[in-house]
Hints:
- The radius of gyration is 20 Å and the shape is globular.
- It contains ten helices and twelve strands.
- The chain has 255 residues and is an alpha/beta fold.
- Helix 2 runs antiparallel to helix 10.
- The strands form three sheets. Strands 5, 6, 7, 8, 9, 10, 11 and 12 form an eight-stranded mixed beta sheet that branches. Strands 1-3 form a two-stranded parallel ribbon.
Amino acid sequence: MIKKILFSSLMLLSMASFSEKLVLHTSGITDNPIRFDPGNRQQPGFSIELMQALQKRDPDLSFAGQNDLRSIKRIESGLKSGKLDIFFGLVSTPSRQDDFHVITQPVLYVQHIRLAAAKDDHAEVHDLADLSKTVNAGAVAVPQGSIYVEQLKSLGGVEIDDGSESLLNCLKKLLLGRVRFVYYGGEELKRYLHDKHLNGSIKLLPAVLATGAICVVISRKVPQNTRARILAGLQKLQRDGTLDALRDKYGLSVL
């Protein structure tokens, strides 16, 4: 009898913690309209719509700051300091799993890394080994703070330009001939080239050179019951088909 009473009490406490009003501080990310495009009423961004869906399922939960666009470096710094509680989403890596709480079940989507090149560039790069062997390939631009910088460094022989904070500036360097390629998520590049009307001068090479799981990342300063609340919400959206519907809307997948 006592055990039953204790169990019931714990269940009530757990339910109460999930019903408390909660505001989590977050951010948008620069140059990534597929995830954050707050000025677009029809497609404000996968991450923004995901937060809206979580709030709809849990009316006592809200997010603040998603319309403020920051660079990757500033987002990671904010998560480490606790100025930001959560971000939707970053590529899951061993170092980020050490620094933050990374929700990998469910993964938001899988990013397929490709190369952008000038329209008249006849380069054939089928994999990362090809990239490292390409003679006189020229520099490969990656936005500053991207985890893909370390990946390219590990190849050896690849000249990397990570001096630009934004994807737009990387693409400008490509247009000016200062770099030969831009290395980034193919889904994001495709959307960006379309939105900025750059398809006439820049193309995506067909090969997928790497993949990365895009995940929800939570600051280690956020308490466990809050993390459990977010996890439960995401898993519910996965079960009821909301996540799949959002992926379809933005041309994303988990494969």
